[in-house]
Design a protein that fits this description.
about 300 residues; mainly alpha; about 0% strand; globular
């Protein structure tokens, strides 16, 4: 049975600070080392310095200059940890709400198969990107996605990976494809680059109804996001079991949770949608980063599929 997010949770996730955090987290780390078609850095040295000054330098870039995974630099741990923090925040609010129909985030037990009655693949629409069309095909599921799922649930395969390698492979070999496969026609889609005469992302995209799964500005507002990321998060448990590890997750890197915004997400006082000077400062800093990264040559989040940009 499909259970939708409680309205209060959806409203919290639709707040601008949550939307900005999620989209910038993905964009900055994906493009930190990227180069355009002319071999020029997507972010200039001056732009990188500005991003650093605002506090948004990624701890580890996730892709190299050509858009391929950096599997061995522990950026995969960043991916797993940040999204586990997102689940923690949602579960905190769910515990306050006490909705017995949705007490906590629970991921899919398996990636929904072909013709799944509860989680069918939404149809392709006319303006859908080629990458979305590809990920929605039966061939993609049967010949790529199900094979990846088998790898990521196979103890023998998992035991040969570091936690960072696991996170990197999950993100780019199956997670991105899952976002695109279960995306529905958004009707009107947010432009990835906002007009040069605009100061920021138009606030009309902050409406809770905008929950497009293929846009990191909105994907986490969609109930499918939490089934998908619950499945991703459960792979950490499988990995620990495969390597006979008990207790806490053995993260090999540390994150300062008092430093916004890379891994602290939105601090607890702001979790319940309270607005104060601290929240406004967080938003203002993210708005500044958004201006810097507002350019047409970006590697767009979720576009790196199976070790290549499609």
């Amino acid at each position: 049975m499909v259970t939708m997010l409680p309205p209060k949770v959806k409203l919290m996730l639709a707040l601008r600070e949550h939307r900005m955090h999620h989209v910038l987290w993905h964009i900055v780390r994906d493009n930190w080392e990227a180069e355009d078609d002319d071999g020029e850095p997507v972010f200039s040295d001056a732009e990188k310095q500005s991003i650093k000054d605002i506090g948004w330098e990624p701890p580890r870039p996730s892709l190299d200059k050509d858009g391929f995974r950096k599997e061995n630099n522990k950026s995969g741990e960043d991916f797993l940890f940040m999204h586990r923090q997102m689940i923690l925040h949602v579960n905190t609010l769910l515990s306050e709400i006490g909705d017995t129909s949705y007490p906590k985030v629970v991921g899919w037990t398996r990636v929904p198969p072909l013709n799944d009655p509860e989680y069918p693949v939404p149809p392709v629409w006319n303006s859908a990107q080629d990458s979305i069309k590809t990920c929605k095909t039966d061939d993609y599921y049967s010949n790529i996605m199900v094979l990846r799922e088998n790898d990521f649930t196979n103890p023998e395969y998992l035991s040969g990976l570091t936690l960072g390698q696991l996170g990197s492979q999950l993100e780019y070999r199956i997670h991105n494809g899952m976002h695109l496969r279960w995306a529905s026609d958004p009707g009107e889609e947010r432009p990835l680059v906002y007009p040069s005469d605009a100061d920021t992302i138009d606030t009309k995209w902050d409406n809770p109804s905008y929950d497009y799964l293929a846009d990191p500005y909105s994907s986490h507002v969609n109930h499918i996001f939490w089934k998908l990321h619950g499945w991703i998060d459960d792979r950490i448990t499988d990995w620990m079991r495969a390597r006979n590890i008990t207790g806490e997750v053995p993260w090999s890197v540390e994150w300062d949770m008092n430093i916004m915004p890379q891994h602290g997400l939105i601090h607890e006082p702001h979790l319940m949608a309270k607005m104060d000077d601290g929240t406004n400062n967080i938003i203002n800093r993210m708005e500044e980063v958004a201006k810097i990264v507002n350019k047409p040559n970006l590697i767009t989040p979720f576009s790196v599929i199976d070790d290549g940009i499609i």
